[in-house]
Amino acid sequence: MDDADFDQVPQILFSDVSSLKKRGCPGTLIPLTHDTRAVLCGNNSSEVIVVATRFGHGRCLVFAHCDYPNIFLNVESEDQNFIDNCRQWLARGENAQFESIDEVSSMNDVQFNRKILVWNGHCTKDDAFMNDLCAYLQQGGALICGSVAWGWLQINKGKFLSDFPFARFCDYIGVKLTDNYTNCPDPILFRPELIKFKNIYHVTQELANDPNNITKLAIIGSAIKELGDTLPNVAVKTLQNIVLNAGSEVVPASNCPIQDKCCREQSIGLCGILCGLPGITAPGVKNFPGDFDQSPRIETDVICHMESNVKEWYCTGYYVAAGITIQIDLVEQEGATGWSAHIGCHSDNLGSCSELRRWPCISMCKPLIGISVRMSSAFGGLLFLQSPDGESNSITVCLHHVVLTPTYDLTDPDRETAWQDRHQYDGLWADIAGKHIVFNLPSKSIRDLDSTQLDQALQFWDTVVLAHHELRGTTPKKRERIVCDEQPSVGYMRKNIPFENFSCSIVSTTVSDSGYPIVTHLDVSDPNGNGFLLNGPALERNGSWGLFHELGHNMQRDWWTFAGTIEVTVNIFTLHAMHTVCHLRPWLHSWLQNEITIAKKYIENGSKFNEWKESPGIALFVYAQLAREYGWDNFKAVFHQYEQTQPDLHNDQEKMDRWIETFSRQVGYNLIPLFKFWGFPVSQSTIDALRNLEIAMIVDEFIEMAPERYQI
Questions:
Q1: Residue 566 to residues 559, 589, 615, 660: CA-CA distances in angstroms?
Q2: Residue pair 226/167 in contact by the 8 Å Cβ criterion
Q3: 579-619: pLDDT as tens digits
Q4: Contact at 8 Å (CB) between 378 and 275?
Q5: Distance CA 560, CA 7 (A)
Q6: For residue 34, with 0-12 CB atoms within 10 Å meaning exposed, 13-18 middle and 19 or more buried, which class applies?
Q7: In this structure, how many other beta carbons lie within 10 angstroms of the beta carbon of residue 468?
Q8: How many CA atoms lie within 13 A of 581 on its CB side?
Q9: 400: helix, coil or strand?
Q10: Would you tell me how many other CB atoms lie within 10 Å of the CB of residue 491?
């Protein structure tokens, strides 16, 4: 089959077929070599769902979900035309039958004659079987196979795709599995314009002649970002020239952010290329995260040992200079496998942002597999080791070509003496850790601080974290991490605003312990600014509403956080920390004072609950009233009860009813009138359950506005 015929495979497979039914949540594939062709894409050309390969004299179709092979074994009428087309191409026009090899342990047990083999890649095969399967293809065999790689990783905690046998098989036939997934529509439309790029090898050749082609840059950038520094059959020199010749309009900078859509797309594509090119420094890296004015002192043959009882980032105490390839030798490892190395603490991906103030993806990650790993970053950054899940895990590595960076650890008894040297280390970013929290900020921000100042600030933040956990009834399992960034991926923090009002953005705002790291803007790393994160005296006076709030997100539970309250119940923890740590009473904290006017207008307009759910300022008042009337000990008792019972609640109404009943029984008063005053819907079953409790007599300026509403 020559190239021209191979180019027609997608049209052959989708002859008289306009779409393919979506199965589950498909992953994505990368057709790497000249002998692969993209067949079907999701929303764009980077979301390849089906790939055709020619391997020796054989033919193969790879699908990005393990349910697709099943359609060839259990024919559904809606797929019949597609199945027939696949049969015709794979078997070269013969009426071959499909035969599953999922339960087969040896290729010697397979009947090849007039057969198309079908393999669900989640059915594990050993290397000998896969070698025989490749030989079968080379001799003219036909195969349909598929898997959902992200699903395999979810099931196999602590594993990498390199541990997945099916992924290794696909690598051999020129197809790369990724851990991404696509939110493509159902059905998935066949769109020929999305597969014109054919494969990564082909698009790289074309990009050399058209380096500003946005579509091709996006495809190659997305692929190389996944491939890292393993670029088979890709002309590295071509890619280097494309990057180094990039114009200033596609190089992000804080003083000249990229807002034009076309330029942003080019920048995103270039960034993907930078992520995979070894030994290159990104243009504009001096803007962020920074670069050295003079060559730093390079350390080599340094031993680093980490012990872990929970999945976490551990700073090695070293920085990786942009464009310098480092080597990590594995010396010893105990406990679970699955350690990985990270370069850079700035893990936010800005690919969906409306402007770019820095390169969109500047952190690198690589699994620590084998006896030695080499990696580099075009952007540079702190070097971390990330541990797998589980207790009693440890690793010892030997690092080469790294730079000492400022680090401080409140738990180190020798920290004062060590800081006399460490604060002057060359690394551009620092790792400043308390017992329960750690900050990553530019080294220039902390070089003039002494150990007494650092101790005061870190002890303050440890107290805040402990206060949050004490309120919820839990204990910290790992250090919270705060990263200062030129541009968080979500949220907005204004410059030069009062310390107690600054805002942060969280990488993943959910109702579980998932905000890791918490990301702030750079202004809070300015030691001369009002909002400096390590200004102990200012923190003790004013607190930090924004960061208390973001830490509170990691305390939220789905049991008592319902629709409209993700930005509300978090501030129960903010108010509590303000009160217990900074001695600023919840009624009325200055943040709530600023919301009084809109809260009164809400009451005047009839207290419509849908409006309550849309305004975190209004919604917080009822929780502040509870704190004022009954104190924090009752909040603690309620939260502790949730932690112990972990109720199975199925909808928002059940969550609201449970909260009202639990708090009422805790304080011994019927609180239904208070919640109904603010517009809460309350189920009749909850009204009946609390009927025997005395109604809480609560009076304040809000309830006095409409006392007739304060009733069951």
A1: 12, 20, 11, 17
A2: no
A3: 999 999 999 899 999 999 999 999 999 999 999 999 999 99
A4: yes
A5: 55
A6: middle
A7: 25
A8: 29
A9: strand
A10: 16
Neighbours of 681 (CB within 10 A): 11
Where do the H-state alpha helices sit in 489-542? 536-542
Nearest to 599 by CA among 624, 581, 580, 582: 624
How far apart, in Å, are the Cα atoms of 228 and each of 264, 345, 378, 398?
21, 18, 12, 22
The bridge status of strand 480-485 relative to strand 437-442 is: parallel
Question: Which is nearest to 413 in space by CA: 397, 435, 382, 429?
Answer: 435
> By the 8 A CB rule, do 88 and 61 touch?
no
Nearest-CA neighbor of 166 among 198, 134, 199? 134
What pLDDT is recorded for position 155? Answer: 92
3-state secondary structure of 368: coil
Distance (Å, whole) CA 206 – CA 211 = 8
Answer yes or no: are the C-beta atoms of 381 and 344 closer than 8 Å: yes
Q: Are 636 and 470 in contact (CB under 8 A)?
A: yes
Helix (H, G, I), strand (E, B), or coil: what is residue 660? helix
Sheet holding 437-442, edge to edge: 407-409, 429-433, 437-442, 480-485, 518-521, 505-506
CB atoms < 10 A from the CB of 708, how many?
6
Burial tier of 432 (Cβ tally within 10 Å: 0-12, 13-18, 19+)? buried
Q: d(Cα 463, Cα 149) in Å, to the nearest integer?
A: 41
Q: What is the pLDDT of residues 384-423, one digit of tens each?
A: 999 998 899 999 999 999 999 999 999 999 999 999 999 9
Tokens of 629: 């009337």
Q: Which structure tokens are listed for 365?
A: 């990650």
Burial of 449: CB neighbours in 10 Å, binned 0-12, 13-18, 19+ = buried
Query: What was the pLDDT predicted at 229?
Result: 60
630 token code pair: 């009954």
Length of the chain, please? 712
Q: What would the 3-class secondary structure string for 109-154 be? A: HCCCCCEEEEEECCCCCCHHHHHHHHHHHHCCCEEEEECCHHHHHH
The secondary structure element, H or E, covering residue 409 is strand 407-409
The pLDDT value recorded for residue 127 is 95
Number of Cβ atoms within 10 Å of the Cβ of 680: 19
Q: How many CB atoms lie within 10 A of CB 43?
A: 13
State the Cα–Cα distance between residues 628 and 10, nearest whole angstrom: 67
CA 447-448-451 angle, to 5 degrees, is 90
Mean pLDDT across 232-249? 80
Q: Residue type for 498, please?
A: P
Written as one string, the DSSP assignment of 448-463 is T--HHHHHHHHHHHHH
Cα separation, 657 vs 702, in Å, equals 23
Closest CA to 476 of 455, 461, 488: 461
The model carries a pTM of 0.86
Beta strands in 503-658 (DSSP E): 505-506, 518-521
Average confidence score pLDDT of the chain: 92
Q: Which residues pair with 320 in a beta bridge?
A: 381
233 pLDDT higher than 60 = no
Residue whose structure tokens are 């109604």: 695
Asked whether the predicted pLDDT for residue 308 surpasses 60, the reply is: yes
Residue with tokens 């991490």: 481
